[in-house]
Amino acid sequence: MTDLCEHAPTRRALLGTAGALFAWSLMPRMASAAGARDSRFVCIVLRGAMDGLSAVAPVGDPAYGPLRESIALNGETGAPSLDGFFALHPAMPNLARLYRGGQASVIHAVATGYRERSHFDGQDVLESGQPGPGRTQSGWLNRLAQALPAGERVRPSGGAGGADLLGVGVTPPLVVRGQAPVYGWAPPMIARANDETVRRVLDLYAARDPLLASRLREGLDTERLASTQGGAMKMQGNAGTPDGMRRIAEGAARLLATDDGPRLAALAFDGWDTHAQEGGATGRLAKLLGGLDDALSAFETGLGPRWRDTAILVVTEFGRTARVNGTVGTDHGTGTVAFLAGGRVKGGRVVADWPGLSAQALYEGRDLAPTTDLRGVMKGLFEEMFSVSDATLSRDVFPGTAGIRPLRGLLA
Q1: CA-angle at 27, arms to 21 and 31, nearest 5°
Q2: In sequence order, which residues have a C-beta less than 8 Å from that of residue 263 and are 6 or more positions away?
Q3: Strand-pair category, 336-341 with 104-111
Q4: d(CA 233, CA 302)
Q5: Could you give the CA distance from residue 87 to residue 92 in angstroms, rounded to a whole number?
Q6: Spacing of C-alpha 90 from chain mean position
Q7: Bridge-partner residues for 320, per DSSP?
Q8: Around Cβ 332, how many Cβ atoms within 10 Å?
Q9: Tens digit of pLDDT for each residue in 63-104?
């Protein structure tokens, strides 16, 4: 039960990178019964454990203020009320707008089945969809891609690499790894080579290795598509900064918006481990939430007409302690929040079986007690969005979850 803050890359992550880089060129395209809607699903993983009690504050709970002390939110701090009991962090005006417009919801007091407090193990369980850590090297989104019903293809033509699953990042998140083809994209970390250099390299590969030349052309096409105004993105693709979050979302949205682009995507934003100087309405967490808020807005803008058929799920490995620590931060906890946003979402709701924050209600005397299983949330989404049966989801996508009922009614 010790708070563990591991940050070094694992051997499995490094091996996963190599496998994902070539998966899309070697494997067949997936198919699904897409129906009348051209659906898009995006999963955003917040690594480091987001403080759900600050992101969506239960201001109506009498125990909230005393537990949160100097970082507590209320009407005076500018936190907009969602339903009279919960208030949204003031750093998220775009999410507040979407919520009021019926295109965003909050699921509170949510968690995976994991009850320890190790980042690595918590992220493994979150992204693998397994009951415990270390059980597989595939992620639930990749297995979902494999489980989509046969029939009408997700997209009508092959597109770059022939894959319908987008993994964003130099190291593709575990959630997208597996046997289904993966379309990989990472924002540039260094300046792009000039056109003449690119032409010469392509000519060299075309003469010596046509397959590699073909893959390079596909990569350059992807970069151009994801880039701003057709040029190289002028960015350091740091997924742990507010500006990096926004720019990564802009590039991913452009890829998802194309007629022959991917339909499922996952990306991860780092830096949510707020042990010290977390801040209340302003401060470190506020900056991170502002970056996430801008990323959601970037998806809305970049997807254009595709936004109406999109659902974005924002998740994190676990929550943080209900009580503020001695460094004006919060430590590793259990229950937290998940966000749903998109034109496909039946929004304007906080979905919560609220356990309360009294001393006797806290999990192990320190954390928000989870009352909703995140896997039930995702099972409900995928039943409605992609017509995947509960039996298939419980067996292949989220093994061992036959006893967890899908949370239905989250989509319009």
Answers
A1: 115
A2: 38, 39, 40, 41, 154, 155, 164, 165, 256
A3: antiparallel
A4: 15
A5: 11
A6: 21
A7: 332
A8: 25
A9: 999 999 999 998 889 999 999 999 999 999 999 999 999 999
> How far apart are alpha carbons 323 and 187 in whole angstroms?
37
pLDDT at 203 (0 to 100): 62
Closest listed residue to residue 147, CA positions, set 178, 173, 126: 178
360: CB partners within 8 A, 6+ apart: none
Residue 189, number of CB atoms within 10 A of its CB:
10
Q: pLDDT: is 204 or 232 the higher one?
A: 204
Q: Are 182 and 243 in contact (CB under 8 A)?
A: no
The first and second tokens of residue 318, run together, are: 């676990």
Dihedral, CA of residue 315, residue 316, residue 319 and residue 320, to nearest 10: -130
DSSP alpha helix (H) spans, 234-354: 242-257, 284-303
Q: Which residues of 149-182 are buried (b: 16+ CB within 10 A; e: fewer)?
A: eeeebbbeeebbbbbbbbbbbebbbbbbbbebbb
| Distance in angstroms (rounded) separating the CA atoms of residues 388 and 366 | 37
pLDDT at 212 over 70: no
More confident residue, 259 or 215: 259
In angstroms, the CA 372 to CA 358 distance is 19
In CATH, 39-187+237-397 is 3.40.720: yes
Angle value at C-alpha 166, between 163 and 167, nearest 5 degrees: 130
| Phi, psi (degrees; rounded to nearest 5) at 234 | -85, 80
At 262, the amino acid letter reads P
Residue type for position 357:
L
Tokens 């999990």 belong to 363
Which helix (H) or strand (E) is 376 found in, with range? helix 374-386
**Cα–Cα distance, 74 to 90 (Å, whole number):** 10
For the chain, helix, strand, coil in percent to 5 are 40, 15, 45
Average pLDDT over residues 319-336: 97
Is the model's pTM score more than 0.85? no
Residues ≥6 apart with Cβ < 8 Å to 317: 47, 48, 49, 112, 114, 119, 122, 123, 125, 126
What is the C-alpha separation between 67 and 330, in angstroms, rounded? 11
- What are the boundaries of each domain within the chain? 39-187+237-397, 190-234
Task: Supply angle C-alpha 281, 283, 287, rounded to 5.
Answer: 95
Looking up tokens 């190291």 gives: 171
User: Token pair for residue 63?
Assistant: 């125990």
